Amino acid sequence: MEGSGGGRCCSGKEKIERPYKGIRMRKWGKWVAEIREPNKRSRIWLGSYSTPLAAARAYDTAVYYLRGPSARLNFPELLVGDASVTTGGELHDMSAASIRKKAIEVGARVDALEAAMAASQHHVHASPSEVKPCWFQEKPDLNKRPEPEDPGDDYW
């Protein structure tokens, strides 16, 4: 029997390459992150994300809190500049719930930034007829009196 060397058989499907450590892709396209707690069999669920980058950043946050500065990260250069992770001396005293919360905050922030960047690139490449106005595009001056729409109607 092929593949009986103790490993898992892929049952004819190609194995999807994981672009970063600590993440995997669900069948429906979402990326998830989780990490095993040191010296335990349990795992800490780090959330489900739209992009592999967001899942990897959530993993990096959790592994840094669990293992400290010696942790092997996907993006070591990004974690050094992240003040929310590097401040405070609470690295080894955090509970699994606290680590999960911090990792989900980072992953959600990255997911939101990725979505915003994708949306702005879509608007740049869209034709003017495809771009729909948004409520936040026009910023009215709240210190000015509103002008009537019809010049003949003077409400003030």
From TrEMBL:
Q: Which UniProt keywords apply?
A: DNA-binding, Ethylene signaling pathway, Nucleus, Plant defense, Transcription, Transcription regulation
Q: Which Pfam families does UniProt cross-reference here?
A: AP2
InterPro entries according to UniProt = AP2/ERF_dom, AP2/ERF_dom_sf, DNA-bd_dom_sf
Biased composition (Basic and acidic residues) is annotated at 138-148
The listed locations are: Nucleus
Region annotated Disordered sits at 137-156
Q: Does the keyword Nucleotide-binding apply?
A: no
SMART domains for this protein: AP2
Name one process (GO BP) from the record: ethylene-activated signaling pathway
Q: Which GO terms describe its molecular function?
A: DNA binding; DNA-binding transcription factor activity
- Provide the AP2/ERF domain boundaries: 19-76
Main localization is: nucleus
Organism domain of life: Eukaryota
**Gene Ontology CC annotations of this record:** nucleus
Q: What role does it play?
A: Probably acts as a transcriptional activator. Binds to the GCC-box pathogenesis-related promoter element. May be involved in the regulation of gene expression by stress factors and by components of stress signal transduction pathways.
Q: Which family does it belong to?
A: Belongs to the AP2/ERF transcription factor family. ERF subfamily.
Task: Specify the protein name.
Answer: Transcription factor ERF51
